[in-house]
Amino acid sequence: MKNALPGVLQKVKCRILISDYTKTIELNPKYIDGYLWRGVAKMDLHNFSSAIDDFIKVAALDPKNTYAFYFKAVSEDMLHNYSGAILDFDQAITLNPQYADAYNSRGEANYHRNDKNNACADWEKAIQLGCTLALDNIKKYCK
Fold first, then answer.
1. What is the mean pLDDT of the chain?
2. Axis-axis angle for helices 133-141, 100-112 (nearest 10)
3. Cβ count within 10 A of residue 112
4. Among 143, 67, 73, 68, which residue's Cα sits nearest to residue 108?
5. Helices (H) and strands (E) in the chain, counts
6. CB-based contacts of 6: which residues, under 8 Å, 6+ apart?
7. pLDDT above 70: percentage of residues in the chain
8. pTM of the predicted model as reported, rounded to 2 decimal places
9. Over the range 15-52, which residues count as b (16 or more CB within 10 Å of their CB) and which as e?
10. What is the pLDDT of residues 2-53, one digit of tens each?
11. Cα–Cα distance measured from residue 109 to residue 103, given in angstroms and rounded to the nearest whole number
């Protein structure tokens, strides 16, 4: 039981955050950060479809919000919608060409689509931009 406590506390924290952000959004429906961080909390609870709805709202309110596209892409990836994830990673990268994590994550989505060439190219770019997480993927899959 002792080991389960941090996970339970994290879920409780996420539910509280979702409730608080929902109340804030009701008071200010254009509060972009409210939608964004509520979506992230939903991701932590593995409620990816609902998180995507929040990220879509962020993008509608702020079409240049890189994080809206990045987190939407991560959520799409978790739902195994790799093509949709890649489109959103593309948008995040268009908005911020130096976004190393977006390249790394797009590489993973490409790999899941059995597109090893683009996966390896994305991981190489992620490494060039300082994402050390991509090194493991390069070593495992790009020989």
1. 95
2. 30
3. 14
4. 73
5. 8, 0
6. none
7. 96
8. 0.92
9. eebbeebeebbeeeeebbebbbbbbbbbbbeebbeebb
10. 555 567 888 999 999 999 999 999 999 999 999 999 999 999 999 999 999 9
11. 10
Instruction: Please report the DSSP string for 72-131 in residue order.
Output: HHHHHHHTT-HHHHHHHHHHHHHH-TT-HHHHHHHHHHHHHTT-HHHHHHHHHHHHHTT-
pLDDT greater at residue 9 or residue 65: 65
Candidates 101, 143, 95; CA nearest to 123 is: 101
For residue 128, the one-letter residue type is Q
CA-to-CA distance for 43 and 14, rounded, in angstroms?
A: 9
- List all residues 6 or more positions away from 131 whose beta carbon is below 8 Å from its beta carbon: 100, 101, 103, 104
Tokens matching residue 86? 């890649």
Rounded Cα–Cα distance for residues 71 and 26 (Å): 22
Q: What is the pLDDT of residue 7?
A: 77
